[in-house]
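tl;dr need the bound structure. longer version: we got a ligand (S-adenosylmethionine) that a collaborator sent over and nobodys looked at where it sits. i said id run it. heres the input, straight from their email, havent touched it
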Amino acid sequence: MEDRVPGIKSRVKGDEADLAKIIPFVNQRYGIDLAYYRQNFLFRHLRSRMQETGCATSLEYIARMKADPDEFKLFLETLSINVTHFFRDAEVFKAFGRIVIPELVKRKDAGERNCIRIWSAACASGQEAYSLAILFKEAMGDNPSSFRIIGTDIDQEALDRAAKGVYDQRDFRETDKKLLDKYFTLEYNKEYRVNDDIRQYVRFEKNNLITDEPLRHMDVIFCRNVLIYFNRAQQDIIFSKFYAALNNTGFLVVAKVETIWEKDKFESVDLSSKIYRKVAQNAA
Ligand SMILES: C[S@@+](CC[C@H](N)C(=O)[O-])C[C@H]1O[C@@H](n2cnc3c(N)ncnc32)[C@H](O)[C@@H]1O
């Protein structure tokens, strides 16, 4: 926990005590607790935004955020917190489709599952959740009760965008053109709307990975490009929640730059695409 920002009092250096004042403000106003993020990462990006906006102190920057609602969004973008797109790291989705989906379908066909349940944790504006729906639908055909995808995030605005399901051309830079044509409708303003035959599999809800109860009875959890923002102690909390959330032998997929420490909880299925399997409770 020594990396957590509130611990800063004991080792104040440079402008960090001043920068830390942003944390309670953002928490109160936007419900996002930046204290969970790695200190160096957070402060580096904060300094960069303050420099960009000509703010010398955190109080000036807070005033700036109050006066200009877009400034907070820009700050989050600087942290890359909301950045995502369809089939991000396409080779991971390919490996998942090749290795994991056939096994899940086999279990379902054998009557072990009625419905395959997938959690897109920290889904931002929903592209990952819809990508998974497309992948499962391609593999399983059209049967609305065969699988369910739940996308969660702490950012309500991102979840609202996810529920709206309208995306920009740039969101499809790793998407197969055939899938784009098949599952999206091009609107008059050149945006793409997710078709209802995909939308019916996906729902979104708010969930804070650190403070809220995890979802339950999951066969798959995708949690990518968010763990990097957390220190080790917070990551441990999240991995324990994911362990509780998964059915025995369920799968966990993290991002390429992220590492799972808990070898007793998760074993690697495919190292290069960071696909892991829960170590079943009776074997742990
Ligand atoms: C970079 S996006 C990742 C989106 C997607 N998983 C991907 O890999 O493209 C990170 C998301 O994590 C969310 N997030 C940050 N802290 C969180 C927390 N404590 N609980 C849930 N979501 C969180 C942010 O709101 C943001 O939407």
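gonna send this back to them w/ a short note. Residues 90-283 form a domain with the Rossmann fold fold (CATH 3.40.50.150).
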